[in-house]
């Protein structure tokens, strides 16, 4: 006897390599822009102490599904920091 519940829920489809690559590119760009925005605040100018941005984790772009970000975290390219935030992975 086959359980009808397992037939109704297909296995989740993994994102394609192209989609993962584009999502990673979008994440890096968002992280870079967020850091630049943080550094442009008052007190970080050329005549100040030149502090670097303290941003290390961001909410990923919403153009891609959460499954994409989870797969990138599973691959070690991103690190899930909790609360919907991700940072660049160790590799």
TrEMBL record:
This is Uncharacterized protein. It comes from Gimesia algae.
